[in-house]
Amino acid sequence: MVQFNHAARELTIKLVYYGPGLSGKTTNLQALHERLDDKARGRLLTVDTADDRTLFFDLMPVF
Length: 63
What we know:
single chain; alpha+beta; two-stranded antiparallel sheet; about 15% helix; about 20% strand
């Protein structure tokens, strides 16, 4: 999903990673989070589980 706000010069994107368990979806988000400037990123939210597999979602706001 993409939203354009021309007045504020903002672009809002919702990106979905889909794939089998343990295929690197969370690892990819963690790598992106580490490379973004501290001022341009929000907190990376991850649901921790007993077997280290994401059950629902990870969330990473970028400003």
